[in-house]
Amino acid sequence: MHIENHPSLANEFPEFKDKIHTLKTENAHFAKLFEEYNTIDREIIRIEEGVEHAGDFDLETLKKKRLGLKDELYQMLKA
């Protein structure tokens, strides 16, 4: 079963595309959170596509962590 990839942060928040780039290069904390978000996102995609295996609880935990990171990154973008 093919599952749509989770859109990148820049695709989800196109109005912040330039700010995302600036913060990734100038703010180490933002860059770290951004990388962690992308790492978890790729892991979720691999699980959903059947490349890696994980239980429902583990997948749900990863999705909650990704959402928390997305919220934190969004708050930084709005600031």
Task: Give a verbal description of the structure.
It is a single chain. This protein is mainly alpha-helical. The protein has a domain at 28-78. 73% of the residues lie in helices and 0% in strands. The protein has four helices and no strands. The protein has helices spanning 9-12, 17-26, 28-48, 56-78. Helix 2 packs across helix 3 (28-48) and helix 3 (28-48) packs antiparallel against helix 4. The longest helix is centred in the last third of the chain and has 23 residues, at 56-78. The chain is elongated and about 35 Å long. The N and C termini lie far apart (39 Å). The model has no long low-confidence stretch (mean pLDDT 91).
List keywords for this structure.
single chain, mainly alpha, 4 helices, 73% helix, 0% strand, elongated
Morphology call:
elongated
Largest sheet: none
The Rg value, from CA coordinates, equals 13 Å
Mean pLDDT: 91
Beta-strand residue percentage: under 5%
Question: Helices and strands, in N-to-C order?
Answer: HHHH
Q: Which bin fits the share of residues in helices?
A: over 70%
Can you count the helices? 4
Low-confidence stretches: none
Backbone structural class: mainly alpha
Counted beta strands:
0
- Give the termini distance in whole angstroms: 39 Å
